[in-house]
Structures are given as C-alpha cells and as structure tokens.
Predict the structure.
Amino acid sequence: MARVVVIEDEPDIAMLVATKFRNAGHEVEQASDGRSGLALVLANPPDLVLLDVMMPSMDGYAVCQAIRGRFGAAPPPLVVLLSARSQVADRQRGFDAGCDDYIIKPFRPADLLTRVTELLGKRVEP
Amino acid sequence: MDDRSERRFSINRRLQYSVSAIVLLVLALITGLLLALRNDISGAQTAAAVAAGVAVFALTAWLSLTLLRALRQPLAAVDDVTAAVNRGESDRRVPRLPAEEFDRLGQNVNLMLDSLSATVAETNLQRQRMATVVDSVNEGIVVVDAAGNITTINPAAARMFETSIDEACGHSAADLGFFTEDEISEIIDRSLAGPVQPIVRRRGQRVLSAAISTLQSSGGETSSGSVWVLRDVTELAQIDEMKSEFISIVSHELRTPLTAIKGFTDLILEGEVGEISEQQREFLEIVQSNSDRLVALINDMLDISRIESGRISLTREEVHIADAVDQSVAALRPLIEEKGLSLQTELVEEPASIIADRARLQQILTNLIANACKYTLASGWITVRSEALDGQIAFSVSDTGIGIPPDALPHIFSKFYRVDQAQTRDVGGSGLGLAITKSLVEMHGGKIAIASRPGVGTTVRFTLPTTGPEDRTDDEAFDNISRTGLVLIVSGDERERIAWEVAIRAVPADVVISRGTSAAAAVGEAELHHPSVIVARCDAGIGLPELGELLEELRASPNLRMTPVVAIVPDISSVRAPDDGALLSGLATPEEVARAVSKLLPDSAVGRPRRGRVLVAEDDVDMANWMRRVLVRNGFDVTLVRDGLAAIVRAVEILPDAVILDVNMPKMGAAEVLPQLLSNPGTREIPIIVVSGTVPDSGPFFIEAGASDFFTKPFNGDLLVRRLIQLSRKRQDGQGSRH
C-alpha cells in the first residue's frame, strides 16, 4: 500500500480522489494549495503525488518542478498531474516539468487508480 | 471686349494700299524722268523729280515703320499674357488687338486659356475631394515610391505611426518602423506577381493589418511604388484572444464540476459506498451518459473554436493506417456491439502508413465511424476501406443505415446542422462532428465528400496526401519528431564535466549534467531527460559506478534500454564494451569523448543523400514503426511488410538494397524466407539482417544459413543503421570490382 498526497484546490475533486484511493487501501493525505502541498511532500516524501495543475499562487507545473528539483535523481515520489487542460502543449508542459503521467479531467476514478497502480508497480518491482 | 466698339484694320489691306501707293509714286517718278530725258530738262523739272524721289523714300520708310509696329505690338501682348499665365496668373487674357490677324490669334489663345483653366479647376476640385476622402478615412494610407520613400501619408496613418505628415513625407518608409527596407522591396516584387494577403503585425501597443497594392509603371512590368492601406485591428485581435481565453476558461470551469459529477457517480455505481438498487443503477447510468455527452460537447466546442481561430496545429508523424483504424474501432467497440452491428475493414497494405497528425486522424475516423454507428439500425453493416491513389490515400466509411435526405446533403458539413428526422432525434451529438471532421481533413491537405440514399446507406470518403501537406517532405516531418542530440554527462570531477561539456556542445549537441554520480542517480537523470547518449566515467575506485552496474540499471528501464553509453574506464582490457556505445580509456581527451558521442547521435535527416531501400518484414506494429522511423530518419526508403510471404513477394518485386527479417512472422518465418531469398537469382545478393525478440541463441543458425547479421531485440537503432550502411558499402564495392 502506498502513501499518497493529493494536492487539489477543488474540495470535491480532492474528496473524490481521496475516497477512491482510501477505498483501494492507500494512505492518503491532502493539501488544498500548491505551497502547503509541496511542504507536505518535502517534509515526508510519499510514494505518489496526485497534483492538480490549475491552482492559485503556485500551480501544479511549478510544484512538480520543485519536487523534481529537490529530489533530483534520488528515488523521488511519482507525480501524476490532473488537469482540465487537454491540449498537447499543456501535456508537453507537464512532462517537461517532470511529471510521470498527465491525466485529463474528467477522468474515471477507476481509470486513475489503474494507471497509478501500474506506475507504482513499475517503481516497486525492478 | 466689344469687337464693334473699336475700329480694326487689316495689316494685309494696309500693306496692299501702301505698296500700291509706292508703285504709283515710282511709276510717276519714272514717267517724269522719261519725259525729262526726251525734252531738255529744265531746272524746275529736275527739282520735281528729286522731290518725287524723296517722297518715294519717305513713303517707304514710313510704311516699314508702321508695319514693324503693327507686328511687334500684338506679339508682345500675346507673349505677355502667356508668360503671366505660366507664372500662375491664370485669369490673364490677351486684350483686343487693332490688327485683325493678331486679334484672331489673341482670341484663340484666350479660348485655349479658358478651357485650360476650366480643366485645371475641375482637376483641382477632384484632387481636393480625393484628399478630403484620404484625409478623413479611418484607414491609414501610405504611398511609397519606387525608391522606398513616402510620397503621401494621410492623418490616420500618421497617427498609427505616431508621426506627422510633414515629418514623414519624403522620408524612407522603413522609418515608420513597420516594414524593413528589404521587406518593402520584397512586398512590391510579390504584389507585382499578384494580390498579397494583408499582413498583420504588432507595432508597439497596436496591431495593424496592412493591405499592399503596387503602383505599376506605364509599361505595367515594373513597379513605381506601392500603396499601403492600414487598419488598426488591435480591438479585433483582443476580442479574438478574449474569445479563445473565454472558451478555454469555460471548458476548464465545466470540466471540473463534470469530474465531480462523473467521478462520484462512478464511485456509487462501482458499489464503493454500499449496495444500490437496480433502478438506482439505471438512473445513475443516465446521469453518466449525459455527462459523457456534455464532455463530448465541450471537446467539440473547443475544437471548433481552435480551428476557427487558426490556433490548432498538426503534429505530423508517421501513422500506421491499420493501427489508426483499429484504435478508432476499438474505442467504438461497445457501441458497435450494443447495437449488434457488423464492422469490417478493408485496408491497403502499401503504403501501410501515412504522414499525419495521429490524434487528429483518429478523431476523423472515430467521428465518421461513430456517425455510421449512430445512424445504422440494429444488425446493419459498416465498412471501413482504404485505397492507395497517386500520392494519396482515400478512406471511406460506408454504412447500411437510414441515409440522409437529398435536401439535407448540401448542409451536412455545416456547424450545428442536424437532419430533422424522427429517427435521428434520439441520437445524441453536438452537430459539430462533421464540421470538425471536414476542417481536420482540409488541414491535412485532403478532401472530403459524402454520398447517401435514404433507406440504403451512407458513404463518407476522404483523401489525405500520404506525405502530409505538400509543402513538407516526410524528412522534415521526421525531423520535427526526433532530432534530439541531448547528452547526459556523469562524472565526479567538476573540471572534467566542463571540459566534456564544451567539447560535446561543439559537436553540436545539447548537454545535461547528472547531479548525482551513482548508477541510480545517473539513470534517474536519464529518466528525466531521455538523452540520446550517456557519457559516464565508470570507476569504482573513486566512488563512481562500475560500468556493468550502470548498464544493468539502464537495461531495467523500458525507456532507456536502447540508450547508448560512452564509458570512460580506468582499464579498457578489464571490461566488456557496451553493446550500444563506446569504451574509452581513462586518459581519453575531451575531443575523443566528443568524437565517440557524435558517432552515436541520431543523424539529422536534412540534406542527407538517399541510402537505398530497405524491406522490413516485421509483424509487431510498434517494432516495425520504430525501425521504419529510425531508417527513414537516416536516409533510407522503407517498405514494410507484415508477414514472410509478403516479404518474398515484395523483395522480388522491388529488389531492395537490404532486407530485415523478423524471426517469427505469420505465414512464414525468417528461417523459411531466408533460403528462398538466397536461392532466387534476383535477390541472392541482397544483404539480409535477421532480428529476433525471443530466440537470441538462434543467431549462429541464421548466420550459417546466409544472413549478413543477427540482432536481438531490443537493439540500438543507430547500430542497425551503421550495419546497413556498412553492408551496402560492401555490396557496392563488390559490384564495383566485378564490373
């Protein structure tokens, strides 16, 4: 079971994601903005960060970059961006910021869980 | 001037009188002299003769003077007036003259002057009108002569360029800061050839649109300057930006609540919060399908707005046609099965792929197949076909559906158009699908058409150029995909890192430095940057990873296992060189390192000579596409086939320069294909490379059987390319010596 930090300013979406992951047996912590989310991640690195892109003050790209910069090449937490921005350029920006996956809203909670579990599996196995 | 009020005389008549009088006087004189000679001349007679002579002389002199005056005076008057008119006193006229001839001349001159001043007045009036128009329009107007200097600029243009008319006139048009000198002459040249699209540009805070026309010289072949008509489109540009921004915001604002609606519905439906009744399930599924419709509508609206504002751009790459069709069909499989429809595909084998935007091509196909599903009743048929035309591929999606009434066909590609039929009312959709589809096809440089008969069915057919829009070659398209030359440097010594970086950047290639020096750290950095080559100093003695350890870490990562490594090791003889890459001694200079790197970098496709045709027989689509991409990027032409039988047929047909055979293929494997090719006189000489994913030990068998080389998947693409070049060179040499 993995430790998951959900950084999302929309309380409904945060609750949706948290519920799905808790029900799947993961340990979930939540933050409602980029800064406090980043602080949470850095204080106690989780296995996975579920990160909203469009947030006030510090957006998901910036948080993702900060996480990557901080952990460097040491095994960092997986970062999965959740975004309503669906254009190729937006996705590219996400991957440039170093995310492991970029999931477009609206997503099915089950699909999100499947994709993330796959990523976590790859991380644990090798 | 009243003719009758003055007395006129005619010079002609006066001359006649004068000459007659002189002739009479001379006659009288001669008569007198003759009489005097016959008789004795008296003193009185002599005096009379002298007097007569004097009289003749006086009369002649008077006559000359009179004539002179009569000629000079009127000429001077005409001369005065014409000179005055030339000076600008346009209302001066020649006065009535005493001599009739000159008077007529004077009056004619006056008539000419009258009509001239009338014409000038008319022209002036028109010019004034034009000037008023030019000055009062909101459009900026600038007239530039052939030398590029401004001859006319109206107040609106002066305002746009923040100058004054006096300041601008006579100065170079380039000083306006809108077009450069070169552009001005280029624009004139181009506009001579035909109409030029208005040029939209930002100047300071404003956005200006300039329509340019050329002033042609009288011959019409050269330009004598240009006229710019400028519009301030700042507000329009702002509105356009706002529109896009608005749609983007709205779509985001809609997506977030939809995520919650769909997400929580999902959670309940999946039973995560307790059991639900059958009716609850049914109702929640209705919520679900309606939110899906909303999502589709939002996506369509975003698309159409981006298409209309020209903000959509295609990412061209090689797309395998069968894959694109398969994936579109797969996405619609539930709908097809739910309605009990049968779907069949008939696709061309060659060309197997097309240069297009993968996602957009799939969107086109999905839209058309989804339409076919929607309007086809249970147990109907849908057929997806492709056929190769000259430089194009035609796709068609046919159904045995309800069809479209003839009067609706002309509007079928219009935005928001829905056929109003009882049968179609319960079919969801935004009414944007076909409009988007048409735009996407046209953006690819293709055409789309529809044919339908009510009650029989509908066929939509579209064509796409195989190489994308004509202005791009496939090389360029590939060039955009991957022309990466990124090198990851792993070393513990700061000075060495800098020296390597400088040498590698000169290759040229981009460089990233690994922040950590452990094998895991290096691979982590590589995961982040996906470098084309990794350069690493490997020396366990000074706390750096061992080469074996680094390679092992790399091979464990699916993304990195193909990445070549240049390893700098303390002792070359003690380690095995990496399969992909190079081994250098600890004393290698930065230049040697850079040289090793440059050999491993992917070749750029531009300006590279064609290296011949390779027939690739591989049934794994991803693998085949990857090989094709690598080979095309390196200047080879590639023919793909997906089974062994096709490999033999195509090899005999096209006589390629090399053949790549996958070991396991449908119909015939490499073990059967190889001897066939080697026994055929036409294909006997062609080098054959066998690639295998599952039986690495079979290498010696295939080499024994006559293959030129054997690769075990996964293998480095650049290695394959180098081997092919080697083989083709060897073959050319062989042929050369035989001739």
Notes: Residues 1-5, 470-484, 604-609 of chain B have pLDDT under 50 and may be disordered. The longest helix of chain B spans residues 43-87.
